[in-house]
């Protein structure tokens, strides 16, 4: 078998920025034809975030490979007519315009589903289509703040947002999974679906542990840097020549750490540290003990000892270290993707099928596919 999972599926995406383009890029990777509707002249504003990829924007290159770009003015009757005709041929319609915009243009879910009951319509938003926050600006940083993510990220001294657009990514992945589920259901029932995904809902879903601590533990978990609010030892520790992350998930792991790695069996029996609950209560003391023992070894030595004992550990890599990561090289994860300015590197999608490699199509220039799409529509 060499067909991609979504061969034959057509997606029309009235999209911009990160959340919706991430969902549809994964659909393209899996073989769907994705027609990206862009503003005439300007295109998706993510095209202009930076120019780091030989003059192209990093976000756009990351999120839009494998798509067809159709530059269309949907403010005009002709533009809306062309879009209606495209949607009539599609299996999925995705939009992440400001709340109410799709409806005003005539592309609300109720209208589209009445005309095309088999269509899967996906509305993506910042805070949802109702409620007092419906019309608020919903940039990733702002949603992280409203959803509580910033309150648990960073150090005791300073809160921080995550270093990648977590709220956008969360919404994009929930949109992706819901589209796949809707297509699966349609294959057996023939019925389409109307799906709503908000960045806020997606991010709050990710807040399960701290949320339950607030609901039932009656406390706000502390910001712990790279540490963990509920597990100890689980942090960065100094070595002779640097530092290493150590994550002990359970009491067996603690016993293995102190006995097999640090050769301190007395600590395994010490009731002050024998259980994770006890270690959390004595966090500063435990972290100091582990740090003192870790300093006896170089990072490479300690990493080897931890691996031999089955203790989870990791180097803290910068992005140069990730690009050159031996795991990516050993598993042949890099591929070449074409763009209007020449080839660039890209990573294979995370989903790996054993019978077919996911598609990694070109990154389109603005309006690159206008002539092809117009010809298909008889224009």
Automatic annotation (TrEMBL):
Lineage: Bacteria, Bacillati, Actinomycetota, Actinomycetes, Mycobacteriales
Name of the protein this chain belongs to: Formyl-CoA transferase
Domain of life: Bacteria
Keyword Transferase appears in the UniProt entry: yes
Entry keywords, A to Z: Transferase
Pfam family, one: CoA_transf_3
InterPro entries (UniProt xref): CoA-transferase_III_domain (IPR050483), CoA-Trfase_fam_III (IPR003673), CoA-Trfase_III_dom3_sf (IPR044855), CoA-Trfase_III_dom_1_sf (IPR023606)
GO molecular function terms noted in the UniProt entry: CoA-transferase activity
């Amino acid at each position: 078998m060499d067909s991609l999972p979504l061969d034959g599926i057509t997606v029309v995406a009235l999209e911009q920025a990160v959340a919706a383009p991430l969902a549809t890029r994964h659909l393209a990777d899996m073989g769907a034809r994705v027609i990206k509707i862009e503003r005439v002249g300007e295109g998706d504003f993510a095209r202009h975030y930076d120019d780091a990829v030989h003059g192209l924007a990093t976000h756009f290159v990351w999120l839009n490979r494998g798509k067809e770009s159709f530059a269309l003015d949907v403010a005009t009757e002709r533009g809306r007519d062309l879009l209606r005709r495209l949607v009539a041929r599609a299996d999925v319609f995705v939009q992440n315009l400001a709340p109410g915009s799709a409806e005003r243009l005539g592309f609300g879910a109720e209208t589209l589903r009445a005309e095309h009951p088999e269509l899967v319509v996906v509305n993506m938003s910042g805070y949802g289509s109702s409620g007092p926050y419906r019309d608020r600006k919903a940039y990733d940083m702002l949603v992280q703040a409203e959803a509580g993510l910033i309150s648990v990220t960073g150090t005791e001294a300073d809160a921080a947002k995550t270093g990648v657009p977590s709220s956008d990514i969360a919404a994009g992945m929930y949109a992706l999974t819901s589209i796949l589920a809707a297509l699966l259901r349609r294959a057996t029932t023939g019925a389409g679906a109307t799906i709503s995904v908000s960045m806020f809902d997606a991010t709050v879903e990710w807040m399960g542990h701290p949320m339950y601590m607030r609901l039932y533990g009656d406390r706000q978990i502390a910001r712990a840097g790279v540490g963990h609010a509920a597990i100890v030892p689980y942090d960065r520790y100094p070595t002779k020549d640097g530092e290493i992350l150590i994550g002990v998930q359970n009491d067996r792991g603690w016993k293995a750490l102190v006995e097999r790695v640090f050769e301190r069996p007395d600590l395994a029996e010490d009731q002050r540290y024998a259980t994770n609950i006890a270690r959390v209560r004595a966090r500063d003391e435990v972290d100091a003990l582990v740090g003192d023992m870790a300093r006896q070894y170089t990072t490479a030595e300690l990493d080897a000892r931890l691996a031999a004992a089955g203790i989870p550990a990791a180097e803290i890599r910068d992005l140069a270290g990730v690009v050159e990561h031996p795991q990516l090289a050993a598993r042949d994860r890099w591929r070449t993707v074409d763009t209007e300015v020449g080839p660039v590197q890209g990573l294979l999608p995370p989903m790996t099928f054993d019978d077919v490699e996911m598609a990694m199509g070109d990154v389109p220039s603005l309006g690159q596919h206008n002539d092809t799409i117009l010809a298909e529509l008889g224009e």
